[in-house]
Amino acid sequence: MDVKKSIATIKKAKQAIPIINTPEDVLTPGEIISERTANAKVFRTANPGERKAKVYGFPIHWKDTDGKFKTPDFRVKRKPLADAMQTHQYEVKSGTYHAHFKADKPYDYRLEIGDSFIEYKALFDESDSLTVQTETLRNGVKETITLNDNNAPTTLSWKVTRSGTGISTPPPTAKDVNGENISVSVSQKKDILTYDVDVTNAVFPIEVDPTSSIEATNDGDITSSAATYSDSRNASTGTTNSSLLRFGQRNITDSTFIVFRFFSSLVIPDMNEIISASFVAYGYGDESGGLDFNCYLFESTYTDPLTGGDFDLFDGWESSGTYTGTVLNDAWSTSSWSATWNTITINAAGLSAIFAKKNDTLKLTGISSEDYNASPEPAYNVNNYVGFWSHTEDGKEPYLSITYTIYRNMTGQADIAISSDSALYAERNMTARASVIFDAPCLLSRTFDMTAQADIIFDALCLLSRTFDAPGGQADIVFDASATAGLIQVMAGQADIAISSNSSIYAERNMTGQADMSFDSLLAMFAERNMTAQADIVFSAALLMFADRAMSAEAAIKLSTYIFMGIDGDSGLVTRY
Fold it and tell me: Within 13 Å of residue 487, how many CA atoms lie on the same side as its CB?
């Protein structure tokens, strides 16, 4: 979000000073809000009970005081009335993220993450030769300082105040108009931070990119440098970089070999069965030099935050020679690398690894096939690596895409999975208030009650399935069937219930009013029921039995009978023979 433009828009609209600023949740079409996690968005697919999740290596939601996960809102707003006289008149506030900006100089800002903060006061001003763009990002605040011509100052200083941990200031980057990297030296004396930009041979304009960033803890890459290729790949430590996910190798000189490996940490949601998965990443750069190689994913054991000592912490690492780990992905060659989104399909072993980590954290390491096989080593002065963006680049964050099924008994507006013995299975989406508990072993059927509009798929005895559809209205349904008989009735509204049973049993009942009825029967039996008002009835019978009961208003009856049992319709007394 461009801070300067946002402030200008607010001023132009002459918006009143708010009493309070409340962050708004950002909804993604098709998303199941109730199934969000701190680092995942979950979506329905066309198949009932199936989900597709995007799992990121960093928190994409914050938990509100109501316990619900919300998407961060990074829009710039006028500070509320109570804070209107503060030095910084505008803010972005969402969860633990709180950035403050001055109206006339938005590049003087304060960023707070929880109890930690960093505050900048620029010791330079904008001019025709120097302009500053300030943006709010999910992971911090980014400035782009443009030196428009050779009249622009090449020394940039800030007074910096900071407290706590969790906010970093990565080394700045700079490029000229031709995309050539420009050297920037950094120094700090007490609370004065200074950047010196070397514009020698540079072509204006030049962009300098200082950033305040929430410290990365979950993903990035590690590079190892050594005099030989084998020493570099077999090293136990290296240098971390939180901005990129690079893998491959490089030969700078005959005595300097570099190996790149990337790491990602992903919290896997709960699931009943995993169907498919892929690792999806946005391309940063292709430095393969035309010598294509494959990317291999392995399970890792590193612990957040990522450190240089995690370089060798992956399945199958060996101190020398070929590595022996289980590759978790299908073949993916750098020849298919894209400057946009790249999809690496997870194989069967990878799916098993993901499923084993449901409700837990899966750590991945990505290396090149040359790194895995210890050959061939890169030739002199040859780059042989590619890279993706890490979570630090807004809109280009890598994620794990997982398609899976859920198994849940639920109340409320939800999906309901119904399963029984090995020969029976049923699953259904429900759209309104309902409670369902269904379990049908081999020679037994159960029923369930619904209170509002819904569809039901009901599996009963002996490989038999029946479908009952209540297209609208408050209709309660009980359906019971055996292998040799069945009666299906479709109703709408507060009305009829159809009950079917086995070959020697028949029961049917019309019902008016808000009522639930359950009927379960076996063998030679008969049941009939009249009911006029709010009542619940559960009737279960076995062998030769009969029951008849009249009832006029608000009542519940549960009749359980067993061999020659009768119910007195007036007194309600139970007689057992």
Answer: 16
For residue range 38-54, what is the model confidence (pLDDT) as tens digits? 899 999 999 989 999 99
SS3 343: strand
DSSP calls for 197-232: E--TT--S-EEEE-EEEEPP-S-EEEEEEESSHHHH
Interacting residues of 460 by C-beta distance below 8 A, sequence separation 6+: 424, 440, 445, 466, 479, 480, 481, 482
Please tell me whether the peptide bond between 376 and the residue prior to it is cis, using omega within 30 degrees of 0. yes
Enumerate the domain spans of the chain. 3-23+72-214, 220-404, 415-576
Record the pTM: 0.62
pLDDT, tens digit (0-9, with 9 covering 90-100), for 531-552: 444 445 444 443 333 344 444 4
DSSP state of 15: P
The answer to whether 354 and 345 are in contact (CB under 8 A) is: no
303-324 tens-digit pLDDT:
888 899 999 999 999 999 999 9
- Ramachandran quadrant class, 563 (left: phi over 0; alpha: psi -120 to 50; beta: rest): left
pLDDT confidence of residue 182: 92
CA atoms within 13 A on the CB side of 274: 23
The two structure tokens encoding residue 333:
């060659």
Distances (CA, A) of 310 to 222, 328, 524: 8, 19, 71
Main-chain phi, psi angles of 478, to 5 degrees: -130, 130
